[in-house]
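[step 3/7] fold_predict: job queued, chain A
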Amino acid sequence: MGRAWLCVVLALSPLCALVRAAEEPASIRTNAASDFLPEGVAWDAARNRFLLSSIRLHRVDTVDRRTGRTHRFADAPGSVLGLHVSVDGKSVWAVWTSFGAGFKENHGTGIVAWSLADAHRIGAWPLPDHDARANLGDLLMLDSNTIVASDSGTGAIYEFDMRRHDYRTVIAAGHFSSPQGIAAGRAVGDVYLADYDTGLWRVALGDGSRKALTAPAGVELRGIDGLYRVGNGLIGVQNGTSTHRILWLALGDDDAITCVEPLAKGRPEWDEPTLGVVVDGRFWFNAASQWSRFDDNLKPRADAKLQSPLLDSVAVPLDAATQH
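[step 4/7] structure written:
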């Protein structure tokens, strides 16, 4: 969930010498309601289907990869944001928030999980000691027992134990402006974090220490929502710039960003892309969240012209896909 702001995208970004497959545009127009207000995307490999979360309707739907037809999968305690399938492929875990009017005085936020086999709810675990600003917006399935979640409302980062169902504060509220996507670090115990207003960071989960990732002059790293690691690079969904982009960011020594290349940008059918998932060498993402077409009570604005949810994709660079 990004915050609306625009910045100038500089034309000085150094390009990567990528090996890329012949691009065959691939997208899926779903038949979900135009007011679905989608956010997160996950992939259920065993059943060859996507899962798509809804901010407005407080639920998750499945999406048939071939036809785009959707089916109601499960209801949630509130608006569903990021979601990930477990390492063993048997369950899907998501973060949710029960928003107050104007996204203020929220009524609760937490983590929820369902079985992929029959959609029964495994459990729902609210964040304790609730701060009315709190809004868990995205999560990373770090391993079979650990989830890392970002709180875009307070700026906190949490670790969640999937066995004990308890939270540990990695970084307390107030240290980040609006943390969004999280990706696995190249070193054990590290993660990468997209802070919407300040750029990309490396965070050590053990002690909460953090370091801003450096980039060549002219590279804009603010406004990134979803963040995903592939090999020695990151894919970022940048929706806080005047032209929305899917970025490839190559990582060099000490996690410095050495070059940046848009894998796609400004496609006319996009309407604020948000989160996604890598499937079979392609990065699939929610291409039309339409956040700006809804008011602070999550109702479509009077003049809103809505489209049904769209999953779009780009090819992951071949050299990136073969790195480990």
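[step 5/7] annotate
Confidence is low (pLDDT under 50) at residues 2-12.
The CA atoms of residues 25 and 314 lie 7 Å apart.
exit 0
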